Structure formats: structure tokens, C-alpha cells
Task: structure prediction
Amino acid sequence: MYKLPTDQDGFFSEAHLKLRPVDFANSGIFLCGLAHMPKFADEAIAQAKAAASRACTVLSQKQMYVGGAVAEVDGTKCAICLTCVRTCPYGVPRVNEEEGVIVIDAAACQGCGNCATACPRGAIEVGHSKDDQFIAKICALY
Result:
């Protein structure tokens, strides 16, 4: 349902073994206990405390800031082909029924750019990675 990554044995995988041991790649979801891997009770309790601590750091803030590398949809180019919806590993793009276009939640977007590269009409661009910026970099090299 949440499209969370698992390993070959079916256990959930953390974002990074050393740097983010209780975080998933999807922000705001935390991992602990036997869902991660078989472990002793004291290890599971320590990991549960770490996950609770990480959740408290998120919940204690009045507002959250997102990075600039988020995908944006140009509604005039979007044909609602759903390619971006199928391509996004985080399940972020969704159809806005009222406007008839794809919308991307900036807080949930991880900025990977998979949706932008898959869009056949070029309707999606990732912030700080726009086409005109790359063209300027390429032209500067030659």
C-alpha cells in the first residue's frame, strides 16, 4: 500500500544502513522491530526508541521545509497519460480530477526525476534541474 522497499527475504529495507537506520526512503515513515529483520528483543526495543525519537523530531516542528529539487507539472502540456504515475517509485504523482492534470505534492516528492524523464510530452521538470539550465551548461562546455 505504501510501496516500501523490501529485501530478497521480504523484510523492509532502511534508507541507509549507517546514516538513516530507522528511516525509509519515503519521508515520514520509520522502521523498527521484526519488520526490519530477525533480532533480539533488546535490539528491537532500542530500534523502536530510535524510531519514536525520529517521529518526535518531525511532529514537534510547526512547519516543514522541503528542498528545491521537486517536480513541477506544466498543466498546458500534460495529457494525463499516467506514465509519471507508473514510473514514480514513491507514488507521488496523482490526477487532480477538478483541473484534469497531474499534480505532484512538493512535500512528498523526493526529487529523483524519474517522472520528468519518463514524461513523453516533457510536461514535468524538476526544480534546479530544468532543461534550459542543462542546455546552458552544455553550451558553456563548447
User: Anything to note?
Assistant: The first strand starts at residue 71 and ends at 73.
